[in-house]
Write a structure and sequence with these properties.
By secondary structure, the chain is mostly helical. Helix content is about 75%, strand content about 5%. It has one domain.
Length: about 160
């Protein structure tokens, strides 16, 4: 399945080959797909699943935008790792468990960055949670590419 996806991405890359390396194009396509899925999950969480003022999970009470971020993070983590391992950074010779650990470290770093920026926009500037997540995603994407390329899936 991943070979078919990679082949399809590579087919469209030929139109942009003069402007963008294949690795960057694959990362952009997979990252965009993962971002859309993550934002959709966040949207579902913020407007349909976690509509109360707080989300109580017995050990901690989350505000709806934070609970939605966690849900979105779980989905994005899984999908993002699979995309990066099997489509984008296929030349990496690191063992899968090392890649997974490094990806988790990178992901958690970006999740914390996302968390603090999101809280700032929602709780200090009183922006809409979904708009705040859209803006925050741009910052996280920029930092994520470099950490994935040079740390998680180092070639």
């Amino acid at each position: 399945m991943f070979n078919r996806i990679a082949h399809t991405i590579d087919y469209f890359h030929r139109y942009l080959a003069n402007w963008m390396p294949l690795l960057t194009f694959r990362y952009a396509v997979c990252g965009a797909t993962n971002t859309v899925v993550g934002l959709f999950t966040y949207f579902i969480g913020i407007y349909w699943l976690f509509t109360d003022a707080v989300v109580d999970v017995q050990i901690y009470v989350f505000k709806p935008h934070v609970a939605s971020l966690i849900l979105s993070g779980l989905v994005s983590f899984s999908l993002g790792f699979l995309f990066n391992k099997f489509i984008v950074f296929t030349g990496s010779e690191l063992k899968g468990r090392v890649q997974l650990f490094r990806y988790a470290v990178t992901f958690c770093t970006n999740l914390l960055l996302n968390y603090f920026i999101l809280r700032f926009f929602v709780e200090m500037l009183f922006w809409d949670p979904f708009v705040s997540q859209l803006v925050t995603t741009g910052v996280v994407i920029a930092s994520g590419y470099w950490m994935q390329k040079y740390f998680s899936f180092k070639i």
